């Protein structure tokens, strides 16, 4: 591996701006780090170059650990957004700088200078000053200068950011060509997805300091694993779907469910605007029926037509159309559904011209199901007022906003009461069920688990958003689902997380090894499927004691705990953490129930 | 007139040029002309006697020598002060920043008296230095110390904005290219701020030549030893030798002008080499 980062973390004033990033770049590979501004991508690049110290983690270049090596000894080439040419030196002196500080001979310097100027197609510019060159030419010189000392790694920080569109495209080609020619491992940072698609062998998407996903451009586009990537790379409609053994449907199941109904799981699907089919009636659709919608807006965009349609059938929620999430809350009470973005080619448009206000049937040619186990949130309480109060909790608000998903309200008058035996089977609330902590908290959680909820968040609505996350799985079977839920949530919380592995001191040696191997397996699976790397801490002792010790600190920590619960033994297994759930003003706890 | 007129978005070229000419004449040129007329009225032999008097020559040496030395010291330490203020965050930074300007605001006599009190052989610092056999007050060293105090803000205030202008990117770039901290300083930072240092040096030097108030208290004013030219002029005035005073003044004027002009030439040359050649 040419460049290898292992759980790199960088904090500014306690806030992680680069959070547990692990990445490897192969020899000669062109990796583009893509992310919105403030996602930590530039900081990460500077950390690789050695221009920024990191707080934790390891940086290796060509197998050599350079975590504590100066920038000048790392042998990297760095290209800055604003060129950073030395203005008092000529072009020739600029290019020779790296050789001059290494006391290379004049003849060698001259030869290398000519070679590099030829490479960037700016021969004969030697005696000019940077100010005499255009922006595009200056950036070429900056690239030539960065390559002078034959670095094995080239790092570029938004190199086209200060250039206009035409020159940008030309320079992009030049850089791609040079990179191929030299076969130099390259990382380029940008916020422009078009640029990323044009240049990258692989794209890494960063958000809030985390590297969410890393993969080939078309894999990331067609099979994103996260909500953020699916909406950041191109446009996407995120729809909640319901999967049962019969397939995927978009209308929610009825509550209470008929006794013979198969179990239904809520899922998050990605529907690209270009994969939406529109027809005047349902029976004319060639693709899977999604629902009916009313056309709201028609925009002609040259080669394609862009439309926004509003879903009329209930059960389709959460859209990536900007602003839709905000308006959605207001619309939740009415019959208005979600805004769906559609793009059509001109032939499609000719077949069915539409005007705003027209009712159409929507079909999906291709649906991608996100591997996230967290689809939505459902607040469960005895009264509607309590639901509204819990739904306003900062943590729930933060998560639902960032995940662009909804918070359902579910009024259950009997919540927290012991089983009475003969009640109609209430349907498990969709997504993560949220209840209030405090007295009776454990009983409420237990009630939900008994009614089939698989993820229960128990929180005090008054408490602010946690500043760190502690993850723990009570058994090997619980590891996998716990990691999946944790990865899904962590991507939307810009805080640090640690996986706590607690081993009984009485465990025999070989047992320990097995357990550790399970842990590492689950971790690498989380990294592979969910693109998330979490650091692990090993403790010896009793789970309940170690957990409460970990949570004893003043700050607010979200505990994500995986429990292997069968429908019958819910209560007993909760005992170790029951204290946490019953405590007023305690830390929020998310219980992940492992399938048994 | 129209020959000089430059196309400009601001109107009123004639008015502003007229004002500039008038102002410069009234405040600078007319008094200087009077000095030149008065100063050159004695005959050549008389002039020679006044200007080449050993006491006068000793005073030139002290005035220009001390001013030069103080300006050099200021150029170095002023740069360090400016560097500290620009590059580091520390508690009380703004306070220190404000303190730099104090020598501008203080009446020079006050700083002179204060320095004398501290550096006098029985003074707070003078006492300590005396034990090392160093005497500051009433020697040429005292003159230099006073001029350093007076000249420091000129250097700091010239260099500060230039240092702010040096982009961190440039240093980062040099570092990734393999430059050591010293190479970064010498090849990147220094060339960028050198014109500003030179400006500060010139201002401090010019101010040092003309300084009177703070020096007369600390120098002791011994003829041939610690007597500066401005003081000699005052002494001549007090003895009603107006022509001698004017002649000495004229001599200072000519020497200062030549030196400042030389420095300006160097600066212009440097600018052309580094920046203007690019246009």
Outline of the structure:
The complex is a heterodimer of chains A (596) and B (279). Chain A contains 17 helices and 28 strands. Chain A has 596 residues and is an alpha/beta fold.
Characterize the structure shown.
The complex is a heterodimer of chains A (596) and B (279). Chain A contains 17 helices and 28 strands. About 4% of the residues of chain A have low confidence. Chain A is α/β, with parallel strands linked by helices and 596 residues long. In chain A, the strands form five sheets. Chain A has a nine-stranded mixed sheet, sandwiched between helices. Chain A folds into three domains: 229 residues, P-loop containing nucleotide triphosphate hydrolases (Rossmann fold), CATH 3.40.50.300; 136 residues, OB fold (Dihydrolipoamide Acetyltransferase, E2P), CATH 2.40.50.100; 218 residues, Rossmann fold (3-Layer(aba) Sandwich). Chain B is 77% helix and 0% strand. Chain B is built from 13 helices and no strands. In chain B, helix 1 crosses helix 13 and helix 3 runs parallel beside helix 8. The mean pLDDT of chain B is 84. Chains A and B meet through strand 6 and helix 4 of A and helix 9 and helix 10 of B.
Which features characterize this protein?
heterodimer; A: about 600 residues; Rossmann fold; 3 domains; 17 helices; globular; B: about 280 residues; MetI-like fold
Topology of helices and strands:
The complex is a heterodimer of chains A (596) and B (279).
Chain A: E1 3-12, E2 15-25, E3 30-34, H1 41-49, E4 56-61, E5 64-65, E6 76-79, H2 91-100, H3 106-119, H4 135-147, E7 153-157, H5 165-182, E8 185-190, H6 193-199, E9 202-207, E10 210-215, H7 217-222, H8 227-232, E11 237-244, E12 247-249, E13 265-271, E14 276-279, E15 288-301, E16 304-311, H9 324-331, E17 339-345, H10 346-351, E18 359-364, E19 368-369, E20 377-381, H11 384-391, H12 394-402, E21 407-411, E22 432-436, H13 441-450, E23 455-459, E24 468-473, H14 476-490, E25 496-503, H15 509-530, E26 535-540, H16 543-550, E27 557-564, H17 570-582, E28 589-594
Parallel strand pairs in A: 3-8, 3-9, 6-7, 7-8, 20-21, 20-22, 22-23, 24-25, 24-27, 25-26, 27-28
Antiparallel strand pairs in A: 1-2, 1-4, 4-5, 9-10, 11-12, 11-13, 13-19, 14-18, 15-16, 15-18, 16-17, 23-28
Helix pairs in contact in A: 2-3, 2-4, 3-4, 4-5, 13-17, 14-15
Chain B: H1 13-39, H2 44-51, H3 54-87, H4 93-99, H5 102-105, H6 108-119, H7 124-131, H8 140-165, H9 168-176, H10 181-210, H11 213-219, H12 229-238, H13 242-274
